Amino acid sequence: MLYHIETTNGVVAFDRNDADNRSIKQYFADKNEAKPAPIQVRGYPFANMYLTHGTEENGQFIAMKSR
Fold it and tell me: CA nearest 63: which of 42, 44, 43, 49?
């Protein structure tokens, strides 16, 4: 399951997509893009976010649930 994350002026909002069972690696392979370096976060159900569009301050990310 993937989390879809959006940051606006550094404020994080996210939702969970239970229907998307791809891994982070599969997600970027499907888009023919290299997997970016993870951005570590605390206090969320995921430990790392991966930037898909924009910047860390104002952008879109995906993540997987931490184990």
Answer: 49
